[in-house]
Amino acid sequence: PSDVPVLGLQVVDDTPLQGLFLSAAILALMIDVLATLWLSGRLSGGRAAATALALAIALGASPGAQAQEDADIDKILAAASEVTLAYVVTGDPSLDRVSEAGLRGLSNVLFRRTSIEPAQPVAVDLELDELSVYPFLYWPVTVDQPRPSSDAYARLNRYLRGGGLILFDTRDANTSVFGGTSPHGRKLQELALPLDVPPLEPIPSDHVLTRTFYLLQDFPGRHISRDVWVEAAPADAERVEGMPFRNLNDNVTPVVIGGNDWASAWATDVSGVPMYPVGRGFAGEQQREIAYRFGVNLIMHVLTGNYKSDQVHVPALLDRLGQ
């Protein structure tokens, strides 16, 4: 009948009230404090005016501050619930877009080829954001990016000690040798100086990064350079009999440093199409494939540590190595 209303299965959005109730509670507390001061005779003259001004400022700032706090909590919870790759905001919008596209492309490869199902990559502000929920940080180095504050470096050092990994990328391997006096290299030294970085060495041929998922000996990005540095092996590391590699560090290397511009090699648009050329023709696409494999090995390394150094993997690794 025409007079019978028809109701669909409509979903009513929840109205967040936590900020409103918290603001009301703070307001009630402040009113109670003011009333107490007034009854005791301690609120008069200039003191009363200053208190009123402070109350007005607090009331005006509370809703915005609460909204920002809620947004920060939501961001942390979202990153903690899934594997989320992050990149450091440099202040250069075009470079930040490359970083985002690069981690998006790497996340897609991880989703298709491994059991890892990453969330969308996120930008990280070293001055504001909580770092511990991100297992991996990509940090492209620019000549003019500002140096983080002492508080930011304290958070970075806690992050490294807690098992996080930072990939520093100077993106200049096509024009300079790592460790030289290039502007990007000097900027990297300035940025890394306050960090608790252990002694470094070029990736040895038996490092676990060469076999965490793929067997690799080269680590190209958009550029090709073998100068990729990781935490140095202990001086007394020895090859165990029957194993094709030494028993190296027990933990994840906290930093990987190079200049191969990995984000540009990994970068894809929202349709999954590569955004930047790598090399020429088939050889270039093969280089991009090896760059993806290096990215997969990096993420598997930070998530599993030196799992592939266990002796249980020796027969399979020897078979794949043809030994």
List keywords for this structure.
323 residues; single chain; alpha/beta; two-stranded antiparallel ribbon; 8% strand
- How does the overall form come out from the CA principal axes? extended
Give me the Rg, rounded. 26 Å
For the record, what CATH class of the largest domain applies?
Alpha Beta
CATH fold annotation of the largest domain: Rossmann fold
The CATH level-2 architecture of the largest domain is identified as 3-Layer(aba) Sandwich
Element order, helices and strands?
HHEHEEHEHEEEHHH
The major β-sheet equals: 5 strands, parallel
Helicity level, as a percent range?
A: 40-55%
Query: From the helix content, strand content and strand pairing, which structural class follows?
Result: alpha/beta
Note the gap between the termini: 82 Å
The overall average pLDDT, rounded, is 83
- Spatially, the strands of the biggest sheet line up as 2-1-3-4-7
Q: What is the count of β-strands?
A: 7
Number of helices: 8
Q: Strand content of the residues, in percent? A: 5-15%
- State the fourth-level CATH superfamily of the largest domain: Domain of unknown function DUF4159
Task: Estimate nothing, just give the exact number of structural domains.
Answer: 2
List segments where confidence is low: pLDDT < 50 over at least 5 consecutive residues.
none
